[in-house]
């Protein structure tokens, strides 16, 4: 909950009309949540188009017609890019490396990336701001049990839950 307090102080010290996306630590919480989420645990399949094939530096040519794919889940947990990849560390986004920015694919990449990515990222910051300002997280405890996830394009939690109760 130390991180919650850090974000709470950042919010309280900012003018009330501040866009939450402009607050570095709060934006880091949103980015780190996306990095660790299992929203897209499977790979994004593609087929190498007709022509000479596809060359990745240091690897053999991939022939046309080959089914290839890239999994954001694997990239987001690469310890060479994200040290301590299973830890929730929003502060890593205060000074992101070019590799972190390159490998952040929560919304996909290129011409097929999510068209609502900017809205969704903003919504995450607004949600975090609302949760923190409401006080609902005060005294909250992390979930100790394992949350079981059914893998598909969008992950679905099948075991475990997180409950929030708004104060009256």
Automatic annotation (TrEMBL):
The answer to whether UniProt assigns keyword Oxidoreductase to this entry is: yes
Molecular function (GO) terms listed? heme binding; iron ion binding; monooxygenase activity; oxidoreductase activity, acting on paired donors, with incorporation or reduction of molecular oxygen
| PANTHER family listed in its UniProt record | CYTOCHROME P450, CYTOCHROME P450 12A4, MITOCHONDRIAL-RELATED
Entry similarity comment: Belongs to the cytochrome P450 family.
From which lineage does this chain's organism come?
Answer: Eukaryota, Fungi, Dikarya, Ascomycota, Pezizomycotina
Protein name from the UniProt record: Cytochrome P450 4A10
> Is rRNA processing tagged as a keyword?
no
- Please report the organism this UniProt entry assigns to the protein: Podospora didyma
Q: Which residues cross the membrane?
A: none
Concerning Pfam families, the annotation shows: p450 (PF00067)
Q: Enumerate the residues binding heme.
A: 114
Q: Which coenzymes or cofactors are required?
A: heme
UniProt keywords (A-Z) are: Heme, Iron, Metal-binding, Monooxygenase, Oxidoreductase
């Amino acid at each position: 909950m130390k991180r919650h307090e850090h974000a709470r102080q950042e919010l309280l010290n900012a003018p009330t009309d501040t866009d939450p996306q402009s607050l570095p630590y709060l934006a880091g919480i949103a980015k780190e949540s996306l990095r660790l989420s299992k929203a897209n645990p499977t790979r994004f399949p593609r087929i190498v188009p007709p022509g000479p094939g596809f060359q990745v530096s240091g690897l053999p040519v991939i022939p046309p017609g080959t089914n290839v794919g890239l999994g954001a889940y694997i990239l987001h947990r690469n310890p060479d890019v994200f040290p301590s990849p299973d830890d929730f560390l929003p502060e890593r986004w205060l000074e992101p490396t070019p590799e972190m920015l390159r490998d952040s694919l929560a919304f996909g990449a290129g011409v097929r990336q999510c068209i609502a990515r900017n809205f969704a990222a903003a919504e995450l910051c607004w949600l975090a701001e609302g949760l923190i300002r409401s006080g609902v997280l005060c005294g909250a405890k992390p979930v100790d049990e394992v949350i079981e996830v059914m893998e598909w394009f969008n992950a679905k939690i099948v075991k475990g839950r997180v409950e929030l109760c708004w104060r009256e």
